[in-house]
Design goal:
Blueprint (H helix, E strand, L loop, with lengths): L9 H7 L8 H59 L51 H6 L38 E2 L12 H11 L4 H5 L4 E9 L5 E8 L3 H12 L8 E2 L2 E2 L1 E10 L5
Parallel strand pairs: 1-6
Antiparallel strand pairs: 2-3, 2-6, 4-5
Length: 283
């Protein structure tokens, strides 16, 4: 009998729940299961159809946009090619340049020979200047008779004035060597810092005006220790009073030679910072 009954039909449900409480929720759920399955299948089919339609719609929009973009690019390319057409070159105007005239330097004047012509004239027409000299006068003169007079100049025909282009070469001043602020071996005062401050205390002369005005304080001086240990450039980096600053610079310039600083085993120029305290006795 069970083989002739459809398992999804209402009859099969009645057979199962025969003699049972049909008002219980399971009976209703069983009766409505077929309907729910059909609605679910229909919903799935509808969703698939909608997805296909949306994908087709989006694809058509993208193809339309690509077509519009391609047409716009073609128009832009055509406009650019039209703008990039080279303009016809203007033929250069013919200019007639005047030939350059080379400056001819005057050659030195060569000696010229004056040829004296002998003319026969009357005695009255002979001037004193043109008077013929006698034998005694000829012997007294240093010039030989009939000698030619020469103008001032040079005897060398090949002598031509030469213009020499002088090139002025400026001597380059050597660049100052680098002054280091930090080195492998710092410069040292002979005997160390204790000897340095002892030397300063002995050689500092307290300025009279500063002492009268009870001016005290620290002056920081910076100076260059040269490669030979001598004190080079001196400057005040932090002053206290003009008189104290001046005295600090003076005493630093009179310092004896340091042991120079070194970099890679070579002596170099190094900045050295030295604070100097000015303090009055009894204060």
């Amino acid at each position: 009998m069970a083989k002739d009954v459809d398992l999804s039909s209402r009859e099969w449900t009645d057979i199962i729940f025969e003699g049972k409480n049909k008002e219980f929720g399971a009976y209703e759920l069983r009766n409505q299961s077929v309907r729910r399955h059909n609605l679910a299948m229909l919903s799935v089919v509808v969703v698939i159809i909608l997805a296909l339609l949306i994908s087709l719609f989006v694809g058509s929009i993208e193809r339309a946009e690509e077509t519009i973009t391609g047409e716009a690019e073609q128009e832009m390319v055509s406009v650019d090619t039209a703008q990039d057409e080279p303009e016809p070159e203007e033929e250069p105007e013919e200019r007639f340049e005047e030939p350059e005239v080379e400056e001819v330097l005057p050659e030195e004047v060569l000696n010229t020979v004056k040829v004296t012509e002998i003319a026969i004239v009357n005695d009255d027409e002979v001037s004193k200047e043109d008077e013929v000299k006698n034998q005694e006068e000829l012997t007294q003169t240093e010039t030989a008779f009939g000698a030619s007079d020469f103008d001032k100049g040079t005897d060398d025909v090949t002598v031509v004035r030469e213009v020499k282009n002088e090139v002025v070469v400026e001597e380059k001043k050597p660049e100052p060597e680098k002054i280091f602020t930090a080195v492998e071996e710092s410069p040292k005062f002979p005997g160390g810092d204790a000897e340095l401050y002892k030397w300063l205390s002995k050689n500092i002369r307290y300025p009279e005006m500063a002492a009268q005005n009870n001016i005290q304080g620290r002056v920081t001086v910076q100076f260059v220790v040269e490669k030979d240990g001598a004190v080079g450039e001196v400057k005040v980096v932090r002053g206290k009073d003009p008189d104290l600053d001046k005295e600090a610079v003076r005493v630093v310039k009179s310092l004896p030679k340091f042991i120079p600083g070194k970099m890679n085993g070579q002596s170099v120029r190094v900045w050295y910072t030295l604070p100097i305290n000015f303090k009055l006795q009894g204060s």
